[in-house]
Model the fold of this input.
Amino acid sequence: MGMKAKKETIKIVIIGHVDHGKSTLIGRLLLETDSLPKGKIEEIKKISRKFGKDTELAYLADQLKEEREKNATIDTTQIFFKTRKKRFVIIDTPGHVEFLKNMITGASLAQAAVLVIDVNEGVMEQTRRHAFIASMLGIDKIVVAFNKMDLVGYEEKKFNEVKNELYVFFEGLGVKPLFMIPVSVREGVNIGGRSSETIWYKGPVLTEALEALKSDSRDAKKPLRFPVQDVYEIGGEKIIAGKVASGIVKKRQKVVFLPSFKGAEIKDIRIFKKYGKRKALPGENIGLILEQFFPVKRGEVIVQADDPQKGVNRFRGNVFWMSKEPLQVNKTVTLRCATQEVACIAEKIEKRINTSTFDLMEKDANELKLNEAGVVVFKTEKPVVIEKFSFIEELGRFVIERGYDLQGAGVIV
Amino acid sequence: MTYLDELENKTIYIVREAYARFKNIGLLWSMGKDSTSLLWIIRKAFFGKIPFPVIHIDTGFKFREIYEFRDKYAEKWGLNLIISRNEEAFREGMNPEKGRFECCNALKTEALKITLKERDLKALLLAIRRDEHGIRAKERYFSPREIDFKWNYRDQPPELWDLYKSKIGAEQHFRIHPMLHWTELDVWKYVQRERMPAVGLYFAKKGKRYRSIGCERCCASVKSSADSIKKIVWELEVTKIAERSGRSQDKENSYTMQKLRSLGYM
Done:
C-alpha cells in the first residue's frame, strides 16, 4: 500500500459477432480479477432473476434497461479494472449490425482488441466486419478468445479447426493475432486461471494475455505538427492554443504556418503556472507566443521552418461509411482532420468494398453506402496538411460530415 | 508524460474544443471533487481566467460546508458564478419526501432548464465519469440533447478519436463531459498532486466520511478512517465499496438513474 507503482494503462476493445459472448466476457473478467464492488454480484443476481435467468454476467456491462430486456448491447461502454501488473480500460461494443457506429466509436479509442468467437459458429458476418474495422483503425494487437468451449466438451480438435479458419481469415486482413485462447466465459475457464478442462492448451489464459499487451508510446522523433486549436487574447497577449500532434516544439524555434506559409519564431511556450518551459512534447496541450504576432486561425498547422511539407488539395483515403445517406461522387461534404475543417468532394470512389465478405463490389463507383468501405480520392477546396496514419496518427485520420451529422470516417494509408 | 498528465491533457483538449466551437457555454460546478477538478483544469486551459460562467444548481438542501466552499473559491478564483434555482418548486415545497426522483428532477433538471434558457447556453460542461455509474459509462464526450432536454441514448451519434461532433440544431444543446475517462481514484490522486482544496465532508470524522457529496438528506456517509487526501488515496486502492453507494438516487430501483438521465439529469 502507498507504493508508487507505475502501472501501464492499456485500452482494449471487445469485438465479435452477436451473442458470441462479448459483454459476458467482460463480466467474467471483472469477477475473476476481483474488481466488483461489494454487493454488485448480489444486485446482478436479483436483476437476472427478474428476467428469469441465472446470474447474467453481461448485465455488468449492459446497464441500459433496454439492453437487459433484449439481451443485447446497444451502445459502447467502458469499464476500468486493474491487475497487479496493469491497468485496463475495457471497451464493450454491440454485435448487432445496426449499432455498428457505436462499435466504431468504441474501437477508435482502443490500442488492442479481443475478438470473441463462438467455436460452434465460427467466423460470422460481424466477426468479419469488426475485424475489418479494427484493422482499418490500425489496431494490430489482437487476442482471439474462442468462447463456448464447454459446449464442445473442450475438444482440442474443434478448437484447432476454428483456429485454422481464423488464421486464413486474418491473413486476408494482413493481421497476425498475438494469442488464440480456448475459453468458456460461462464456466470461467482460461479467463483468470488455468483449467484442467483444457490440459492440451499450453498458452496464456486471458488475463495473462492482456497483461502481455503493450501500449505504443508517442514518438517525439517525428517532425513537428501543431494544429492550431484556438487563439486567446489574455492580458493584451495573443496565445495560440493547441496540442502537439508530433515532434517537439521549442522556444526560439523557427516555424512555418501551413497552408499560408507565413514564417514565425516561437517566443514562449505557456502552461498555466509552469514557468520557464523550453519545449513541449507530443500530447501536450500548450499555448504558444510568437515573436511577432500576425492573425492566426484555427485549423492552421505549425511545422518547422526547414520542413518541406506543404498542404495538398487531393488525397486518397480508406473510408468507412456510417450513414444511411450514401457518399456520392462530386457532392460537397465537410472534411475534418485534427482541427482542420474544409469543404471537399469525393472525386473518385476507386473501390467499393463489402466489409463482411471483403469482396470488391465495384470499381469507380458512384456511391458508398451504409456499412461499406471504400478507397476514395478526395479533392479539397483549400489545401490540407495530412500524413499517413501509420506515421502521424492525428493527421492521418479524418471524418466526413454533412449537415449536422458525422457520416464517414477514414484513414490515410 | 505521466498517467495523470495524459488524463489532464485530454480534458484540456476537450474543454478548449468546446470553447472554440461555442462561446456561450457554462460549467456545472457542484463543489464536489470531480467538478472542482474540472474547474481547476479549465483554469489551466485558459491560463487562469475562465472565459465563461460557472453554474451551481442549488437545490437549497446542500450541506453547509458546500456553500462555504463555493463562496470562498468563487471569490478566490474570480469566477463568474451563476446560482441556478427552481424558485417555483421551492415555493411549492418540493423536497425528497415527495419522492427522490421527483425532487432531483424538479430541483436539479428543471432548474438547469431555466438557467440554460435564460443564458441561451449552447453547451454545458459536466464532470461526470464513466466509472461512477453504468449509465454514465455509456456517454459520449460531446452528447447532443433535445430541446426538451431528452437524451436519446438509444441512438447516439458516432464519436471517433478526438474529432468531436460540433454541429447541432438551433434548439438543441450539448452536454460535454471532459472527465469521462477519469476514475474516482485518478481524481483523488490528481487532487493530491495539485494540492487542490476539497470540501471537508470528504474527510473522515468519528470514523465516517462522504465518498460522494450532494444534498444533505440524500447522501449517506461510509465507514472510513481516511482523514487526509493521502489516506483517501490509500483507501480507494483497496476498497470494495462502490463510490455512489451512499447516493439515494442511484439505488431506489436499478433504473432510476437511467430515467433521470434520459430526462436531462446530470
